[in-house]
Amino acid sequence: MCDPVTVSVIATLASAGTTVYGAQKQKNSIRKSGKFNQEVSAINESLALGSASNSLIKGQQQETISRVNTEQLVANQRTGFASSGIVVGEGSSADIIDQSIALGELDALIIRDNAVRESDSFKREAEAIRLGGELAESRTKSQTKAVGLQAANQLFQLAI
Fold first, then answer.
1. Residue 1 above 60 pLDDT?
2. pLDDT by residue (tens digit) across 14-30?
């Protein structure tokens, strides 16, 4: 039969091996989770930047449509005035046409400004996502170090 000291040493070594193995498994799990979170953050950041670009393109298209609609409105007003025998470009008809042009330009500029604001919002979202990914990476490193220190502490306790 084995003496008590040998049994104690074997039990301590087995416990130490289990501690090291468990710590390594936990560190690997934390690293995989951290890597996954970083990949998801990178994808989401890319999507947000794509949305920023798309909102500018959509805004440019809407701005162009608004300007075309204004030109059509002014053309219809001129035609209406002319068919009614009103002199186009003088007096009230000129004022109405000028106001339509000014309001149409204002609409187009508001559309552009809204698109820029929407794009900026998506860019800020992308930045927040990127920073979240960096934080996840930092958290992963800290957690793996903490697991290693806990395992070392347990090993030290076993050695005492």
1. no
2. 887 788 888 888 889 99
Residue type, 2: C
Predicted TM-score (pTM) above 0.85: no
DSSP string, 67-118: HHHHHHHHHHHHHHHHHTTPPTTSHHHHHHHHHHHHHHHHHHHHHHHHHHHH
Side chain identity, residue 28: N
CA 126, chain centre distance (Å): 3
Which two tokens mark 126? 């992308």
- The three-class DSSP label of residue 62 is helix
Q: Find all residues with CB under 8 Å of 72, minimum gap 6, and list them.
A: none
CA of residue 43 relative to chain centroid, distance: 9
Q: Are 69 and 154 in contact (CB under 8 A)?
A: no
